[in-house]
Design a protein that fits this description.
Blueprint: H1 5-36, H2 40-67, H3 70-93, H4 100-125, H5 128-181, H6 190-194, H7 199-211, H8 214-233, H9 237-244, H10 252-273, H11 279-299, H12 303-330, H13 337-365, H14 368-386
Helix pairs in contact: 1-2, 1-4, 1-5, 2-4, 2-7, 2-13, 3-4, 3-5, 4-13, 5-10, 5-12, 7-13, 8-13, 8-14, 10-12, 11-12, 11-14, 13-14
Length: 410
Amino acid sequence: MFRNPYVQAIIASNLLLQLGIWVRNFAILLYVTDITHDNPKYVSLISVAEFAPIFLFSFIGGTFADRWRPKRTMVWCDLLSAVSVFVVLLTLMFGSWQTIFFATLVSAILSQFSMPSAMKLLKRHVPESQLQPVMAMFQTLMAIFMVIGPMIGTFVYQNYGIFVSIGVMGTMFLLSALALSFLPKDVVVPAEAAADKNFKREFKEGFGYVFQRKALKTLGGTFALAGLAVGLIQPLMLFVTTDNLGMDKGFLQWLLAANGAAMLVGGGFIFALSKKISAPKLLALGMIAGAACTVGIGWSTSVPLTIGFQVLNGLFFPCIHIGINTMILQNTEESFVGRVNGVLNPMFMGMMVVGMSAAGVIMDAVSLFAVYAFGGILFAFGTMLLVPLFKHGGGSGSPTGEPKATGAAV
């Protein structure tokens, strides 16, 4: 697995992009709060610039990723992101600070084209038996940066300022493009090359593909419930810190750090076990642990107990990420990987935004614990949806849900 040139290049690219993105996220956040004196309107625009492209471009990007050559798509996306970053850097030098949102917006849009292209390459060139360990490796890398990313981003901005921070971001995109350039040349599948390309038809086919396949349709329902649960509880962690624990809001960083460190440990543990448990069972394990920990965090008024629930939640969270991505790759034909990602990701993000919008209103109407308890119930319902997939391990690519070989090539 580690000798696979596709895995090597995509991991190297992901490492560089994670570094650039975390520097970007914290540098821009700190810069905007400094220059606007903590104006919440401008601070909220950072999240809008980061998440809005997922709604607007996820399925469009997935459809085009299924059409285009994956290596070329990924390299060009990183190069265009780097160009946009250096354009923003120039405008900042001339005093137009609002264009800083443009750097986040452009890279977020282009990621909706490059991410499904990476999934397509993994589907094509990684044997099915190695897909779950590869997803575990990516989860571990993500967990590492959840722990060290905020520290790196804060250090770069506080010591070198916004210009160097933005420059680091652009450089990381360029280095990512360089790493991807070492990938073997794209292979054009004759059947795909000869196919009549009709965007509208392909757009509809993507939705039909998901809803005609038992495993993917089930995953969509789980995605929606998990997204709503995450949306409800994520904005309220500050109130867990202040109301439940009676701590200063600055204590929130330690709760998040405990969760991130546990994710790192959990990612390594799941990587070791990833070949011994099926993807649906792995996902269900993460969901049921999330349900129990969500209720526990909302109920606890003890600092050690809340940290314990945060650690437990972090240990099992990699099961969700690894299980989801493995199920998508195992149950999707190569020519539909981009569109399937484009259908499922907005389900999660859309319901997450609904949850975020309703969280404060529900908390005011009932209580903080009631919101967390409801979030836990949603996780539990999502787990129940997965039970019918346990029999065949979720590796079904046919509309009826019967096991079918995915034909992944080495």
